Amino acid sequence: MDRDEEEKALVQDFKETFASPHGLRVLKHMAKIWRATESTFVDQNPTGTAYREGLRGAYIYIVKQISKDLGKKKQRTAKNG
Q1: Quick one: pLDDT at residue 28?
Q2: What is the domain count for the chain?
Q3: Distance, CA of 24 to chain centre
Q4: Above 80 in pLDDT, residue 74?
Q5: Exposure winner among 13, 39, 62, 79, fewest CB in 10 A?
Q6: Is residue 80 in a domain?
Q7: Mind giving me the DSSP string for the chain?
């Protein structure tokens, strides 16, 4: 399996995992506890801020994966080839 196929399979796995009612509940829970939509700043504590921002970054990564349009990736690859 080449790199593009692996990435496509992984994105599809993310989509299937988080598309179920269970996955949506987990994603919603992560957004809440990882402060996905609020400030991650911790006054007088740069380590705490970095930690919270790391958690938020993990949530954002997951959302980006499930938001990818695999058809567009395929079209871009065909144009470049």
Answers
A1: 97
A2: 1
A3: 13
A4: no
A5: 79
A6: no
A7: --HHHHHHHHHHHHHHHHHSHHHHHHHHHHHHHTTTTS----TT-HHHHHHHHHHHHHHHHHHHHHH--HHHHHHHHHHH-
